[in-house]
Structures are given as structure tokens and as C-alpha cells.
TrEMBL record:
Reaction(s) catalysed by this chain's protein: [protein]-peptidylproline (omega=180) = [protein]-peptidylproline (omega=0)
Name used for this protein in its record: Peptidyl-prolyl cis-trans isomerase
SUPFAM superfamilies according to UniProt: FKBP-like (SSF54534)
EC category name: isomerase
InterPro entries: PPIase_dom_sf, PPIase_FKBP_dom
E.C. number: 5.2.1.8
Keywords: Isomerase, Rotamase
PANTHER family, per the entry: 39 KDA FK506-BINDING NUCLEAR PROTEIN, FKBP-TYPE PEPTIDYL-PROLYL CIS-TRANS ISOMERASE FKPA
Single Gene Ontology MF annotation: peptidyl-prolyl cis-trans isomerase activity
Organism whose genome encodes this protein: Algoriphagus halophilus
Domain of life, source organism: Bacteria
Length: 184
């Protein structure tokens, strides 16, 4: 009996010691490098219409415009924006959308939901910061694809249908910018 108890305690202490040796920064770096490799593979194998792009390769963050409106109607902190979006995984699986037909086509349709475009005030941290950053680079009428690593998305926790450590793709259309108070 004593041998079993000592064995159990040794195993428990060994496990605690091992867990305490895990470096969260190294783990974050490993997750980021895996995300970056997956995003680069996605970009190498996926055809996305590209009329303009913003690349931050060091952070594995991309904005690729499919349509430019040239409306000159830019987004500023304090503005309220209205956006249609479709959220996807790199596999192409849709996990969320504001577009009814996309929801129907991907088995996400809920007849009790009206599918309005997303509306949010810029600078209030009400959406993913990387999503908002992408929208802030656009003008009314632009259509773009925002690609981000998991740490700029839902990170280690995931959320709803998004698993932890999952890079994300958002197809977005900036429908409207309602100007807020702006400093002169």
C-alpha cells in the first residue's frame, strides 16, 4: 500500500514539476509560427481576387481588397460602421455571417435571426481589434478579405464555434460609415 502511495505522490509531484516548466512565451511563439505557416500555405493555395493589399508578414496579418470603391469615405475613431461579413476558418468552413444566403448555404441558417449587417462604433473594442483595424483601412463600398493569426482572433480560448488557436479569415464589405464626433 505504501509503495502505491509513494508512486502516486511521485507521479503527482513529477507532473506538477513538468507543468511548471512550460514556458507560456515559448508556447505562444510555437502557436504563432504554426499559424503563420498555415496562413502562408493558405495564401499560396487559395485564389483571392487582389486589387490592393496590406501585408504585415511579420505578424501574419493580411488585408486583400477584392473591390475598391474610391469613395474617399474613410473610417475614423468614433464613427459607426455598417459591415457585412463572413467569418471562415482557413479550411473554408464558415463559422459566422451577417448574410442570410451564406448562412443557408453553409448550414448556419436560423429562421429566428434577421441577418442584419454588423454595426459598431470604431474605437470601443466591441469587435476583434484586428477585424476593426482591417475595417479602418477601407472606404465605404470596399470589399476585402482580412486574414489573421489566432492571437489576433480568439486566441487560446476560442469562442463559440471557433476552437482555440485558430487563424481566421473574414470576407467583409463596408456598407456605410456614419461619422461620429471628429476633432478638427
Amino acid at each position: 500500500m505504501k509503495i502505491k502511495l509513494y508512486s502516486f505522490l511521485s507521479l503527482l509531484i513529477g507532473s506538477i514539476t513538468l507543468v511548471s516548466c512550460i514556458d507560456t512565451e515559448e508556447t505562444s511563439e510555437a502557436i504563432f509560427l504554426e499559424d503563420k505557416a498555415e496562413i502562408e500555405a493558405y495564401l499560396d493555395t487559395t485564389t483571392i481576387v487582389n486589387v490592393k493589399e496590406y501585408k504585415d508578414q511579420a505578424n501574419a496579418y493580411y488585408i486583400i481588397w477584392q473591390e475598391l470603391s474610391n469613395s474617399k469615405d474613410s473610417v475614423f475613431v468614433g464613427d459607426t460602421v455598417v459591415v457585412h461579413y463572413t467569418g471562415k476558418f482557413l479550411s473554408g468552413q464558415v463559422f459566422d455571417t451577417s448574410i442570410e444566403q451564406v448562412a443557408k448555404d453553409n448550414g448556419l441558417y436560423d429562421s429566428n435571426y434577421k441577418y442584419p449587417p454588423l454595426s459598431f462604433k470604431v474605437g470601443t473594442f466591441s469587435v476583434l481589434t484586428a477585424f476593426e483595424f482591417g475595417i479602418r483601412q477601407m472606404e465605404t463600398g470596399d470589399k476585402a478579405t482580412i486574414i489573421m493569426p489566432s492571437e489576433l482572433g480568439y486566441g487560446r480560448n476560442g469562442q463559440g464555434p471557433v476552437p482555440p488557436n485558430t487563424p481566421l479569415v473574414f470576407e467583409v464589405e463596408l456598407m456605410e460609415v456614419k461619422p461620429g464626433l471628429r476633432e478638427n
